[in-house]
Write a structure and sequence with these properties.
421 residues, alpha/beta, 4-stranded mixed β-sheet, 13 strands, 34% helix, 19% strand
């Protein structure tokens, strides 16, 4: 055999021995890798949260803490301190999709052309206000009864809620009194009842007659609750109480049957006690009744604070109008106005009732819409309210449907969710 052939045979033998040695060395590694892969696969398949981990320290822990704090703020921040921001999503319903909008609130039907006032949502400064969800609302309040107590603006609020809920279920109208002041709607699939309990002043009132005709002058018994709404409160789970607009009329105030003063009477022998006094006493009487109502155990009462009117260049009966088409910024609201004074009185009275209710099994909370609505002079019907008997008058008190008032139900949902949570 030639030397070159021998060297080649030795080289091939050496390479085979080297490959054999390398494979023998790789075997333990391959077996170990296979074992690790099997364990990881088992963990991923059978672990409920395979990628959830708890950071030990440093930046990861701070991020987790901030996330929890953000969630906490959503439930505890001040929902009512904020601003209106653009929202091109628009309303959840239209004047076509909701069949229960009264003509007087159906602004588009009555000729309103601008639509930009619909494209805004309320943004609290420190959190987000969740948009109203009719399906969630009806699920949460299944089997419950909710009553709106107060004047026509309280009814306006109820009508907004009725429209929002109609996108999930159409309610059945089951009751209306002869004067169309008290109404009840029922949602059979969710066993949910919605009511409006009408009251001009919350307390007992009687309009004076002059030559057999209504005078627009009222006698108010400030220590006697209006029994027309009070007697219907039994069985109600949630009450939203509001009022104030009727107090802007000449009235005489009584306590224990005795005249104690007046509103806007301008008489030498009768003291004008002021709008704030009358509103405070009316709410105190109404809330005291709820607190002492033995048939109202477990009742949750929300006080919706004063909803401002936006008459410009005159009052409701002197040519005042409201023709704006977009919201004001936070700097545009006047917190020194009487609107804010009434709001403050209402907040003080609901807080007074809350403290007393703690040992009576009652819950009270303010739904403080005044700040937000001071910025919305664009949301009223104005001349688009279709009233045939009062032509030339503008409605700058109530709110278009759909319109900014729908945000009140965002507030309502968020406020009640806090009680439930």
């Amino acid at each position: 055999m030639k030397p070159s052939s021998l060297s080649s045979d030795k080289l091939q033998t050496s390479k085979k021995e080297e490959r054999s040695i390398n494979l023998s060395r790789l075997a333990p590694f391959l077996l170990c890798s296979l074992g690790v892969t099997t364990i990881v696969s088992f963990f991923i398949v059978f672990s409920p949260n395979p990628f959830k981990f708890t950071p030990r320290h440093g930046l990861d822990q701070r991020v987790l803490s901030n996330s929890k704090q953000s969630q906490k703020d959503d439930m505890n921040c001040d929902l009512f301190d904020g601003r209106w921001i653009p929202d091109l999503n628009g309303p959840l319903y239209t004047n076509s999709s909701c069949k229960t909008i009264p003509d007087s609130k159906n602004c588009f039907k009555n000729g309103r052309k601008d639509e930009d006032f619909l494209n805004w949502r309320w943004k609290p400064n420190d959190c987000e206000l969740r948009r109203f969800n009719p399906k969630t609302f009806l699920s949460i309040f299944r089997g419950k009864k909710m009553a709106f107590i107060g004047d026509s603006v309280a009814r306006n609020h109820m009508e907004s809620l009725l429209c929002l809920l109609s996108q999930e279920e159409i309610a059945v109208h089951i009751y209306k009194d002869e004067e169309d002041r008290f109404r009840t709607w029922y949602f059979p699939h969710h066993d949910f009842t919605l009511m409006i309990l009408w009251s001009k002043f919350l307390v007992t009132s009687k309009e004076r007659k002059i030559n057999g005709s209504a005078s627009g002058i009222f006698d108010l018994h400030m220590d006697k609750v209006d029994t027309k709404w009070a007697k219907k409160l039994t069985g109600v789970d949630y009450a939203i109480i509001s009022d104030a607009h009727w107090f802007f009329r000449k009235s005489y105030l009584y306590k224990d049957g005795n005249l104690i003063g007046c509103l806007l009477c301008n008489e030498q022998n009768v003291t004008d006690l002021g709008l704030g006094f009358a509103v405070r006493m009316a709410f105190r009487t109404g809330l005291n009744f709820i607190n002492k109502c033995k048939e109202c155990m477990g009742l949750v009462t929300l006080l919706r604070t004063f909803s401002p009117a936006h008459f410009e260049n005159g009052g409701w009966n002197s040519g005042g109008s409201c023709n704006r088409t977009s919201p004001l910024g936070p700097e545009g609201k006047d917190l020194a106005a009487f609107d804010w004074e009434l709001r403050t009185i209402q907040v003080e009275e609901i807080e007074r009732a809350r403290k007393e209710g703690e040992w009576r099994g009652k819950k009270f909370v303010a739904m403080d819409v005044t700040r937000a609505m001071l910025m919305r002079p664009d949301g009223h019907p104005g001349s688009h309210w279709g009233n045939k008997w009062m032509k030339g008058y503008n409605d700058c008190v109530h709110w278009c449907l759909p319109g900014p008032i729908d945000a009140w139900n965002d507030f309502l949902m968020a406020t009640l969710r806090r009680f439930i949570s």
